[in-house]
Amino acid sequence: MAKNPQSTDRQPRDKAGASVVGWLLLGLVLLFGGLYVAAHYVAGDKVARNTTVSGVRIGGHPQAEAAQRLEAGLADTVNREIAATIEGKPVSIVPLEAGLSVDYETSVAEAGGKESWDPVRLWNYFTGGDSFEAEVAVDDATFQSYLAGLDEQHGATARDGAVSFDGIRIVTKKARAGAALDPDDTLASLRTAFLADEPTDVALELSDVAPDIDAGDVEEALDGFASPAVSAPVTLAFEGSNVKVFPADYTSALSLVPTDGELVPTLDAAKLTEVVGSRVTSGAPVDASIALVNGTPQVVPAKPGVTFDAAELEAGFLDAVAKPQGERTLALTAKVAKPAFTTKDARALQVKEQVSTFTTYFPYAEYRNVNLGRAAELINGTLLKPGETFSLNGTVGERTEANGFTKGYIINDGILVQDLGGGVSQIATTTFNAMFFAGLEDVEHKPHSFYIDRYPIGREATVAWGSVDLQFRNDTPYGILIEAKVTPSTVSTSGVATVTMYSTKYWDITTTEGERYNLTQEKTRRIDTLKCHPNEGFGGFDIDVVRYFSPVGANTETRADEVFNTTYTPSDTVICTNPDAVDE
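Above: the chain's sequence. Below: its structure in C-alpha cell form.
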C-alpha cells in the first residue's frame, strides 16, 4: 500500500509544536509559582494593608508588631475613665478596676493577622482590609467584685424577714426589698462605652432585688408554727403519767431557719432533751451510796429513774408544738432506768465498822487551816471498792486558787519555800497512816526529804501535783469508806486532822520501828534573797518501820512482814543574810 507523503511531513512538525507549548506552560507555572511564593513571603503573617481595629491602622504589619501598634493606638482610650450615672448620681468608672481590658493578640488574629498559603488570604493582603472592633476581655471575678462595690455604695441590700422567740414572745423582722445593678445590662453598657470613638455617658439603672424570705413567708411561719408554738404547753404522755412542758421552757430549743426561700422550723434536740429531763418526775436514776449516820456506816438505797427515747421526742415534738390546743399531746415510751450501782451492790461491800483511824496535829497557820480543810473535804466520803486504787492527787486535784487552795510552805531542795497547797502533806501523812493500819496495799508514797517531828517517824508521806502522789489499793474483798475531817488551829490551840476508814475488819495490824542509823550532819546555808525563811536545822538518818499482818475473821490469808525503809536528809540551818528579807 502506498504511503501518504503529506502525513509523514506533518508528524515532525506536530511534535515540535507540542514541545514548545509544554515548555511554555512549564515556564508559566514556574513564573506564577515564583510570584505566589514571593507573595506569601511578602504577606507572611502580616495584617491586610488597609485593616483598622477600633480606628487604629495596623495593616501591613506582622501579628506581634500589629498587636503592639494596636496597644499603643488604644492606650488613651483604654485608660480613660467611663463617665456614668447611677440613678442620676455621677460615677467615674476605671475600666481596669472594673475588669475590662483589650485582648490585643486575639484582636489582631481576628483581623487576619496570621500566616497562611490560602490564595484568598494573599489576595486580600494586597487588595483588601476591613475595619474591625477590638476584642474586649472581661475578668469576671474582678467585675463582680467591682459591681458589688457599686451596689454597696449606691444600692440597698435586700433584708430577709425573720421570726424568732424570746421566751413566750414572738419576735419578727420585716422583709425589705433591695436594689442592685443588673450584671448583664451593666456589663453590656460598659463594654459599649469602653472603646467608643468619643467618650459616652452611660446611664446605669438599679433593679429591685426581692428578699429570699418575704412578708408572705414571715406570715406563713407565724400562722403555721410560731403562734401555735407559744399558745399552750405541750403534754408528754409517758406510760402511767403525763408531764407538761411550757413555751417559756422549750422555745429556746426552737428556731425558724431560712431554707430555700422558706422559714423552716428547726429543733435543738439537746436543749429540748435537757428541758424534758428536768420535768420527768422520777428523774435520772440515783446510785446507791454508803454514808455515815451518827458515826455508823449505812447503805443509802439506790433509786431507779424514768428515762425516755430522745430520738422519739425529737421526731414528734415539732408536729406537736404546731397543733392547736387540745391536740398538743406527744406520746412517749417511758423506760425505767436502773442505777449503775445498786443497793445490792452497796450491801455486798459489807462496810460495817471502823477498821482504822489516825490523827495528826498541826501548829497554827491560816494557810494550813484552808489547805488541810479543803483537802479533807475532797477526800471525805470516798468509797473504795475491792481492787480499786486511791490517788490523793486524783481525788484532791491540782492545788489552785480556783480549787479552793492558798499559798503555804512546802519543802523544796531541802528548804522551806512558798507554793499553792502548802500543808496538804499533813493530810497525806494522816491518810497514809489510816491506810497503813487498815492493812491496805501501799502502791506509792514518798516520805518528806527531812524529818518533821509532828509526824510519826518512818510513817509519813508528802505529795506534789504532777510529780509525787500517795496511792494505795484496796486489796481486801470489802469496800472501804474514807472519812476525813479537820478541826482548824487557832493562835492558842493546835489543829487536828483525822482520817478514819470503815469496812469489815480483815487484818489486825501492829508495827515496830528500829533504831536510827546512817546518821548525817546538817549544814548551814546563808541565803541573800528577799524571801527567806530562817530554819534551825538537824541531822539526817535512816530508819526502818515494820508492818505485821494478822488475819481477822473469815480471812485465811497470810502475808509477810512489810518493811518500810526511810532515809531522811539533814534539815539545813538557814540564815537569812539580806537585811530586807521578808519571812512570808
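Confidence is low (pLDDT under 50) at residues 31-44.
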